[in-house]
Records
---
Amino acid sequence: MFSMNVLWSYLHFSLDHANMTADIPEEISKLTNMQRLILADNLIEHLPMNMGKLQSLKLINLDQNRVSILPDELGQLVRLERLSISGNRLTTLPETIGSLRNLLLLNVSNNQLKFLPESIGSCYSLEELQANENSIEEIPSSVCNLIHLKSLSLDHNKVKQIPPSLLTACKTLQNISLHDNPISMDEFQSMEGFQEFEARRKKKFDKQIDSNVMIGSKGLDEGVDL
């Protein structure tokens, strides 16, 4: 498919929209200097077990493929900052994901997840968590350890309750979106720390409006359907 000798020194490897049907070859582990791996919109089903050797990776985009399992070796990518694997067939995430201490963005939307692992609370740098359109019933209490979390989006799931200390523990949280979940606005507004969260949220959008940033009709919505 491609020459590993040619790609040896690549920092950025992109084959999105290539209708790539073969799995990622094991030889990709030789690209130890690679920082960005973009393989969105293909037909990839499996990731190589030795991908943990790609120690320089900062970004992985595997959106819109057919991946059903993430290897435990994913946790070895300690420099990873952005992981987007939406629109795949994931049913679980590996516990080793908690080893990604530099991860800023995790997007696992539109998969088949029923839960998020407790270890996700060890992704201490995480600022944005997107897990829309899954079958998640519960937000793990460990999410309260994510003190840098700014945005939590779980639209179109089965979430019935939120960890009681989420709003008080995650003091940088500015956006929560829980549309189409079996949780009411009254429940959300009765949580400890709601007023402080509301103040942060409004301050964020006030700044955007002052900067002439356009926001959609849901821009000032807490994100919980009535």
Note: The chain is about 15% helix and 10% strand.
---
Amino acid sequence: MSRINLLPEQIYNKIAAGEVVERPASVLKELLENSLDAHADKISVRIQKAGSDMIAVVDNGDGMDADDALLCFEAHATSKIKAESDLFAITTMGFRGEALPSIASVSRITLRTRQKDSPEGSEVVIQGGKMVSSRPAGCAPGTEIIVRDLFFNTPARKKFLRSAGTEEHHIAEMMTSLALAHPEISFELRIDGRNFMNSPGSADLIPRIRHLFGRDYADALLPLSGGLNGIEVSGYIARRSFTKTTRSEQRLFVNSRPVESQAIYRAVRDGCGPVLDKGRYQPCILFIRMDPAMVDVNVHPAKREVRFSREFEVAAAVRNAVAQALRESGESDLAPGTVYVPDPVRNPVSEPVPFELRPDSPEPELISPKPFSIVNEPTPEKPAGNQPEPDADDAYDMELILKSAFLDYTPLSQQTVLKRASELPGLEPEKPAEKETQEPDDNTESPAPAAQGNSLGLRIIGILNQTYIIAEKADGLILIDQHAAHERVLFEKILKGVDGTLSQRLLIPVTLELTRAEMVFVRKNGEALEKIGFEAEPFGANTIKLNAIPAVLSQDRSGQMFKDMLANLAESGNPGERANYEQIAMCACKAAVKANDQLSMAEAVSLLRQLSYCDLPFACPHGRPTILNISMKEIERRFGRR
């Protein structure tokens, strides 16, 4: 008996739907592309329940006659290509003929359409891929498609949709991209009855950018233009001071089609030159026009990824246009004609030394939960508090050893978050312990600042390169990364305040301009934002007010930090517990002291004390070690004494 079966039409349509219809935003994308190909100049979209209940698209395009209204739901039926040669010069948004039958197979869909010169229109109703009715209907010229109950017959697909806020964010992002690609077309978007986009058509792109992203965003853009061998590049690049934490604001359009291309992303970064911090991206809106035969859009059913037959020339055209725009505005240090190519990573060659380290010597080991011991050192009386009791027989307990070096311990959950004058949040100078008054001996030298805590077994002896705190212990040295350590301290302070107890209300709220897509996300995820200390409320079409921020953050940096966090949350698409953890880690990282920030000895002592009271002091929230342990045995081995 044959084991190979020919799949029924209903099944293979659902398989095709899995490639084309990933989420409500992909359904909307296919419908909008049909409207654009039908030469519509006005498109209206209505969304209910993040698209799972309803997606409705109305346009004033060419419309269809009764026969085409039925034929468009057949697999591989399209008006956009007629011969094989058409695949190598695609000028329309769609061409596969898969979208409508795929959408109809997983939803309840109603189509109403009429051509301008026709006296009446047609209505077609399909449920789960099966025809329900087809009849004449009265309607305006153009096409209206209503998709209801998306994935009603594939509950497994519906279960894997993200939160309503995330799905609506993807819808708004997709609408934003198409609105930028076609500024001459009027777009309207309403979500659950609320107007999120109402942008009339105009040949000038700047008013649309201002409408979608806000005035600050538009004012930060520099115009660019260029070309190479028939490849034309135009658009805008942001100033050097205006950067984002994700690449989502780098928008690329090839022949008016929103696309993604790693080659172009690299070209943009190379054109910006070696000025961007790692993990920062300059927003851009780039339009690339070329012969359609030079670009392959038939790579993936979603048509987002494209390939170029002359990729090097496309990248060179983009890189030169970006570099020229920045150079002419004084934003680039690259000389004319310079192409920035990152240097390959090489190991630095050190200067010759009088002796050589043993080749078989192991590298210094990372600190472990039992990093060192204190021999014959008295343990001071513990202060009152609810800190955990250490094991009596554990002489290697990190928490006990570090706590013993400082007398003014207060559990983190009860500490007031303080700031030093130079805006390093979470660090406060160490208060000296009270001592009995006694006359100083003129012949006695005052102890050096590095001797703090020496009698208690741990002595900070310096700070290396304004980055690493060096402390001496009984059997070696420990190095503390001041940024990683402070990041861990702030992270646990915020984490212990997720119930709101460590959120500080602002006397004067901070106002921020957001994109329309970000506004959609904020409205739907206010509760998730409050859990990590931010309280935001809408204050206009593109503006919000920050009424409260995590207490460990300084107000002057809270606005940019909130925007960065919002971009990361929206891109991850999951404002749940794991995302909260990641965003708290990001807030802590941004607020922590950095490498080369100068700390006083008192601040270094305070930081080490606070680190010792953390639940997980050995690594920052991103997993990098905070402490490196170098034993005396290892030091002696390196010097050839063992």
Note: The first strand starts at residue 42 and ends at 48.
